[in-house]
Predict the structure.
Amino acid sequence: MSLVVKRENLDHQGHEGTRRIRQVEDFSSVVQLESFVVSIQFQIEATSGPGRVSTLITPHGKIETPVFMPVGTLASVKGVPQDVLEELGVQILLGNTYHLYLRPGVETVRQMGGLHGFMSWERSILTDSGGFQVFSLNDLRKVSEEGVTFRSHRDGSSHFFSPESAMAAQIGLGADIIMAFDECTEFPADRERVRTSMELTLRWAARSKKYFEEHKGEVPWSSRPPSAVSRQEKQVLRSSTPASKSGLLGTPVAQDDNSVKSDATQSLFGIVQGGMDREFRRESALKTVEIGFAGYAIGGLSVGEPRELTREIVESTLEHLPQDKPRYLMGVGTPEEIALYARMGVDMMDCVLPTRAARHGLLFTSEGRISIKQARYAQDGGPLDPACGCRVCRRYSRAYLRHLYAANELLAQVLNTVHNLSFYLDTMRAVRHSILLGDRAHFLSEPSRRIP
Ligand SMILES: [Zn+2]
């Protein structure tokens, strides 16, 4: 097993307290100010081939990667209370800036201490920039150099997102990791369109970083150590209410306190675009890295292209991303795909599939996919997935889950979602375990090493 131990202070690259002013090629009007503060740490614990197991530490706790991040679009993972997410071992979840901007509005969330305070979630949060959501509005948007004018999918009202306003919204929401504003290129698109779009995203990335560097002290929790006071308050609450110790009453259960301390703030990730063109992906990756971010995302995939092409583009883009920073593949995929991408060296992934499929009665199990609505489960007394240890599989039968779904009971959505999330999280645990075993597993399986 090749064991690699690195500790990178992502925001200042090991020169704490020194301010470096850097001109970025092609973006000479943008002055880059390196941060003083360590806001996330990324430590590679073990590698196996291109895959790696790492520890990512944010101001709100420790994340073991490769990690799957459940999607909590409107500050809620639909149907699942926060204490159940904690029980499942969710270490980071994702919020959608576009939706939260429309309701309840950034100012409301900011006044409640940001998303952590608002939704009572003390662990890490990532928000997207709104770029992809606006992209999916199709006819309701108009893109210019300055930004995107779009109409709300809810009431048709007109709004405008620029790199600066998308950063301001994400700073107000206060997630630990926020994303540069990008344009997601549609598929298919001709070569010139892909180039123009990729270059626009690079200019927006530089503007996103500039705004972030100038305003990151405005995060709702930056004036005091993250959750330090609230943790003490909640500790008192926990010790005075024994039943709440396991989270049964819905009170927060703090994670191991591995948080980055003191005046740490948010971290900004850049997004690589470039459509399905390897050369544009390379150029986008190199120039995004040149601008300099705490981590890098691969965006613009799972937009209708064949799965094999997604894999090829991911693989070729990863080659151009720094080894020592987290890599986030946005918006993929099935359990098989997230396991594959994790082994290819992706550290973070998100997807609505497990939660959305669950609400439609589609369940992922160790024996394959199950459509729980099918009549054949009507009298099936077995667990949903015999190999799953989640609270749903431990307690309920397929027959009961099928009945809940057929009767349109709300509990069906809750239980189905809990299981699917558990399956995704277990899939990532298995990948991490396999990478940690790495060459040792291979060594033990060699014929000459076997006991006769
Ligand atoms: Zn289960």
In short: Residues 266 and 366 are 37 Å apart (CA to CA).
